[in-house]
Structures are given as C-alpha cells and as structure tokens.
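Cross-check.
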Amino acid sequence: MTGNYKKLACSAGAIAIALLSVSTAQAQQQGATSDAAKIAGNGEAGQDGEAIVVTGTRLQRPNLTSNSPLTVVDATEIRYQGAVQVENVLNRLPQVTPDANENGSNGSDGTARVNLRNLGSNRNLVLINGQRMLPVQANDLNFVPTALIKRVDVVTGGASAVYGSDAISGVVNFILRDDLNGVRADVQYGFAQHQNDNDFARGIQRQANYRLAQPMILDGQKLDVNLAFGTNFPDGRGNVTAYFGYRDTKPILQGNRDVSSCAFDPAGAGNSTLTCGGSSNNQYGLFDPITGPSADAGRFNNTRDGNRTWVPYDSSFRYNYAPLNYFQRNDTRYTAGAFAKYEITPAIEAYGSVMFMDDHTNSQVAPSALFQGFTYTVNCDNPFLSAQQGQILCGNAYGTNASQQAYIGYRPVAGNARPRRDDLRHTDYRFSGGVRGQIAEGIRYDANALFSTVLFDETYSNDIDPTRANRAIQVVNRNGTPTCKSVIDGTDPNCIPLDIFRFNGISDAAFGYIYAPTSTRGIDKETVLSGNISADLGTYGVKSPWSDDGIGLVLGVEHRYESLEFKADALALQKGTKETEGRFDVNEVFAEIEVPLIQNKPFFKDLSLNAGYRGSDYSNLSKIVSTYKAELSWAPSSDIRLRGSYNRAIRAANVSELFGPQVNGNVSAQDPCATATPTATFAQCARTGVTQAQYGRITDCPAETCTAQFGGNPALRPETADTYTAGIVFTPSFLRRLTFSVDYYDIRVRDYIGSISVNQTISQCIQTGNPFFCRLFNRDPRGGIIFGDQGYIVSTTQNTGSLRTSGVDFGLSYLQPLGGAGSLGVDFQGNWNRKLVNEPVPGLGSYDCVGFFGPVCGQPTPEWRHQARFTWTDAAKVGSLSLNWRYIGATNLTSNSSDPNLAGTPSAFNSRIKAYNYFDLAGTAKVQDGIVFRAGVNNLFDKDPPIIAQGLLTSFGNGNTYPGLYDAVGRTIFIGLTAEF
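Predicted model, tokenized:
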C-alpha cells in the first residue's frame, strides 16, 4: 500500500495547490466584511459573526446555508410526539423507510436503525455532533439520549465527499445539548390503549376456535427518566455537561391484538379472504416418514386425545404460534455520559466526550419444536411407540432393532414447555477528544480522535437442540425402564428419554435435557483520527471581484480502523453457528471549497459555488477510490434561492458485509412447488431442482417459513452512487414568516452491495426461468424441501445490479400571529416518490417498487407520504395545542402485477392497501418558569393497521402487518414533565 500512500499524499498536495490557485486567481485585495446572517430552516444563526456548523459541509462561516435537501426535527417536535425511541420520530418523516425498531421480534438483533430513501440503513451515516456515532454496521439509535437532543439534521443527498463512505443516501446528525448551565430533569410515562373491535379478524378467529383478544386492553407501558446537569467555567471559557437516563418498556403480546392474535393465510377462490393459519409443527406431533413402508404415504399426526395413535395430518392440526410472539419487545436501557470543553488560549480549546449505553431487550416467539427439515431417527423397538404407530413407521420391522428416518414436527406446549426467548444485550462505549482553535484571523484547525466499541451479547433460551432430541427419541426398554441408547453405549450418559408419540408426553426432566441455551458475543470496534484546517480567505482579501464574502476552504486528513469479532459457545458451534473476525483500515484526504461568485448585485443577491473531494485508500482494496461533489446556489433576491448539486459517492463494504459468517436462517416465503397440489407446473418446478418423483410430494415450508443462507463476502467491490438534486427555497418578504421549499432528487447506485431476496429468487425462477435465479435453489435431495438442515436458497451478500430512486421533497413552515389569541404555526413535510427501480442483476430486467408492497418489494412504498403539524400557542406562551396529520398513500400487491419481475401468486384480499390517515393530538402547559407539563395521544382514533397475510410479509413485517410504517398497537397516550433550573 506504500504506493497508494504516496499517491494519496500527492493528491492532497495537488488539491491544495489547485484550490488555492483558483482562490488567488479570483482574489481582489480589499478589506473583507461579512454580516451575520440567518439560516432559513437549516440550523442556528451565528451571533456577532460567529461561524455556524451546517450538516452537509465542514465549512464554518457566518452565512452558510445548505445546498442539499435538509429536514430539521427539533426538540419541540420530539416532545409533541411523546417519543422515547428516536427511531419512531424519524420513521414518520416521508423521506425515511422504517427499518429495525421496537416492534420487531423474531430475528431482531435489538437495535434501532434509520433508512433514508429506502436505500438501506447501511447507506446513510449517523452522526452525533458531526462525528460518527458508532461503527456503521453496529449503529443503534438507542444509543442517542433522546432528552438531550437539540435538533436532528437529516440531509437526504449524497455526502460521502464530506463525511466519507456510507453517506450515499445522506446523513442523520443528532445535535445534542452540551452546554447546560444548571439542572434539567425530564420524566415521561406512556402506554398503549386499544379497543379490539375488528369484526373481520375476530370472526375468522372464532371459526378457527382460537382464543380472542380481550375487548379492551391497556399495555406496553413506557417510563423514561432523564437527568442532565452542567456548569460553565469562569469567564465563559468552557462548560461541562453530564447526563444520565433510564428507560423501561413493557412488552405487548400479539395475542392482545385482534389483528395479530393468529397468523393469517389466504383463503377462498382467488385468495379472496383470509383464514387463521399456523404451523404444521404442531402441539400434538407430526410425522413425515422418509424411509420405510410409509415413505410416500403422506404425513401423520398424533391424535388430540393423548392416545398413541396416528391419523392423516390435515390443516386442522396447525398450531397458532402468534399469541405468544412479541408485538413490542420489552426493553431496559441505561445511558450516561458527559461533554466538556475548555479554552486554554484563544488558539487552543480542548474538548471531549464520553458516552455509554447498556440496552437489554428480549424477543419472544412461540415454544420451540422438533422442527421438520431435520432428519430424525426412530428405532422400531422404541417402547413409547404403539403397535399402530410402529406398523405405519416400520411395517414388519416393528419391534426389531431396525430404525427409520422421518421429519418430525412436534411442538411441546404443555407441561414445562416455555416460549423461546432471545436475550439481546448491547453495551456501547464511545470516547472522543480533540483540540481546536483559531491560529490566525480567519484560519481555524480541528484535530480529534474517536474510539467506539459495541459489545453484543446474545443468549437464545428454551430452544430444543435437535441433536439432543434425536438421541432422546432413540430409546429402548432396559430392565423395564425406557432408556436412551446413548446412555447404554456411553456416548451421552445425561440423555433423558423423550416421549413424542402422544400429546403432553414429555417429562420435566426431558425438557431440561432438550432445552439447550446458546450464547454468542460480537465485538465491533472503530477508531477515527481526523484533522482539518479551515480558512475564511476573505479575511485576506481572497474573493471574487463581484462578491462581499471571501472564499472558504477546508483541507483535512482522516484515518479510520474498523474490526469485527464474533464468538460462539460450544453448543452454538455444534448447531451450525460459525465464528468469524475481520478488519480493515482506510486513510483519506479531503478538501472542500466555497466560492461566493456574485453578491448583492441586481438579480444576484448571492451566487455561490461549492466543491469537495475525498480520496480513500482502503487496506482491502488495490486502488484509491475518489468521491467528489459540486454544488451551485443562486439567490436572485432575498425572497428566492435556487440550489442544485451533484455528488459522486463510493461506498466500500463494511466489515460485517465483508466478514459476516455464512449461516442458514429462517425467512418468510412460500414454496410454489410444495403440497400435493403445487401452484407451479412441473416444468417450472424442475427449474428449481424438483424431480418428477418429488413433484406433488414436497412438504411445504412450515408456517410459511423457509430457509435461506446468509453471510458475508470478502471479495465485495465498492458500490458507486451518483446523486443529483435541484431545488428552490421561497422566503417571500411579503409573507415574512413563510418558508417553502421544493427539492428534486435522483440517486443511482451501481454494483449494489446486497443480497437477492428469497421471494424474488422464487418468483423470478418460476416466472421467467432465468438460470441466475434458479441456481440459487438448494433443495434437500431427500424430499425436495427448501427448509431444514439441507434445504435452502442462497441469499449471501454480493455485488448485485443497481438501484435508482428519484422524487420530490416538499417542505413548508409558516407562523401566523393571531393578536391576543396567540399564534398558529404550520409545519409540513411531504414526499412524492417518482421511482424506486431495482435491477437485481445487470441486463436481466428491472422493476419499479413505487406504489407496491409484497414479496418482491417488501414494505409499502407509497407514491405520496406527508406529515403536517398545526400548532396553536397562546399569546403569553404559557400553553400550546398541536394536531399532527400523517398520510400514507395506497399501495398495490406485487404478486398481482403484470410485470413478470414482480408477479407471483395473485391475491384478491390483499390486492391493495388503502391510503391511511393518522391524527395525533398533544399539548403543553407551563406550570411555572422552568417547568413545563406535556400530554398527548398518538393515533387519536385508534385505527387498526392493515391486515396482511403472513406469506406476503418480508423484512420488518410482524404480526400480520408492517409495524414500523403503520401504528400496530393502537392508540398510545403519554404524559411528561420537564424542569430546568
């Protein structure tokens, strides 16, 4: 890499010379003056010419404004929403597609993330006070102390040239209060309250004889307590601010909501309605012989009466796994930290911070099972096996020491059976420190270091170990006592016999043997060393002959090191978990220049050019990668400003994408080649690896949950993105308190790092026969299934095709005085999605997901979304009342599309999700100076989320809906108090 280092150094020198040459060529030697200016909606104005920091640029000048689409969420908005999880605030923004959140359970890693422009949470950068929050692959918004947020800047244009890799779709910058001079306490309590009156859902559950949710429910309580205190140093030379936070969230069970208390499946002609589905891994016990006389005779089930009798399996035996699943996870979080700064001399200000989080949450799902897909061995002289069962399984070999193989779907729910629980604990540390100051008039420097570590401990409990279970069902009669064969031969002296041949036949001791918790630990580390020099060259007369302000310039270097280590205990390794580790580092140079070309001339209130460059030398890449940007801003008058930008962004794979272990896991999908009446023809199924003998005899994925192979890929290439934005901002002088903006964006990502979704693989292979997709099938050769230990679909990380999104953002802010009646404020944010085009493989077709949801496109992508808040404040500013209107446009099911890239099994019932309107009401009241009370209701009219069949849900779907986008748990109510002294 030595050659690359030299090239990088040369690049830095060339950048500096080139930019300074341009500056000098345009310079005019005269005194420089600048007036303090305002940032309309983009930040905070400086005082007395003080420099302002604007997210999206490293320049610090008194009159900076953003040239990229920028949305600001302030602390008042967070309080009006009663939000204690900041991801819920961001998910309401129309520019954001919900990602990992508190309503995910099965498969959740316990984190909360943000996804800008639906390009993925790994393509936006999360900052705290302008610095990286945590390693990008381990980002967790739970780390942010919500009560300390001053504002959140959301830049939805490429920002890689400014902040480095990962900022393809934009940046989310949390600006925290780090200058308290006193004490600030905040406490909030809230809960969910829902009326279960969905007649359609309850009618279906009655038909299935399932338990109904209580008519009225109050649950999901949340308590959030925060304390912060700070003090200024003498002479105003610095400040120390410290904080502590505690948050506790109670769980919500899916069984407590009628929309989620059973897993819905399509039913009726053309899938015109729904029925309560479930899992064939049922509480009575399913047996599917692989060998022996009944290998092709279908599946059998233990009877409900507890007798040792098998009958043919049918759907009436399915187990309703939904009620015990979490709709909202329990969570306990502690946060603590401190910020400090001290001016040693005007040229040296030392600053630093320490931040800590311990977040403990659990996901919970239905009790474990001897799951179909694993090959179990049953000896024909098993004393628990009745003669009737033995004849079906073994035929004439019944009673001998012969053995047969079978898939078994037996889910113990009685006796000592317990739900599976995934204990998820994140312990995060973040330290930063540096020095900054002004070394000459108009010239500043900043050198800093940041260290962060994320510890992720996971323990999976109450899960049946299939290897132990397989030993425990191989039982013989020894001196009149059922005894494991592994005890007799000494291979496992601890084995306890397992009676699975009748309902509720498992002893407490046997549960203790087959329940085997597994534990893993992940350690993510990041080190960032950075330094830059910024100059306002107008101080030295370096400026355009037609402008009042001088040229601004930033030059800097950065080093970043990231590592990943993943360890597992012995049992987890035995069950297929793979350990991994990896690391990389990158050395970078960057530069940015702002050139005011014309100012305060007719039709040219301001015309400015901004440009930036970053060169990055990655240890795992053979050449330097370059990112750059160019931005132009023109204000003909103070009433209007036009802005446009182009960004070339490069995103190198993060350490998890490179080195993540390849493992098999569950995925929501349906096998069109399964059951006795497949929905796909034999010719279509043959493309996926189905033989003539298997066709019509393949077992369907239990509970519509198939298996996929996931994991990293060290050979990944960087992905490249081009972002174009163009916008206009109106601040009319004739309507002084109005700001209105319109911004167009177009982002295209090539060599997209991701995986081919399992549902897309199934759809594309069946519908088009494309060999690329068909090669991703790996059917179990014994029965053709795509679940279990040998059947899966490959969905590992790779450089795929491209992704393109474009649309228009609208923003409006207006305040109307009402005289003695106070004032009325309006804040509006809307987004029109023009396109979201995915090309999974170059040259093999593309599809547009705007206006769709379903197996291929995932979460709904409506053409239009908006949020509008109307706030009345009394004249004395003692109280306020605020109404928020959220609108989510209608979307159609991908499966019903005529586009072969989207088409699947049609469904009439879920053909369309109608447009949704939610209304929220909140108010504040000043109790006395420094003490403010607040209360509010979200989802005022307790609107149910849309009910979606489980097989149509993909990532972030839970409880028959998409809880990140729609309000899943009903009406939520909160009260809170803030006191400052």
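The chain has a mean pLDDT of 91. The longest strand covers residues 419-440. Passed to J.P. for a second look.
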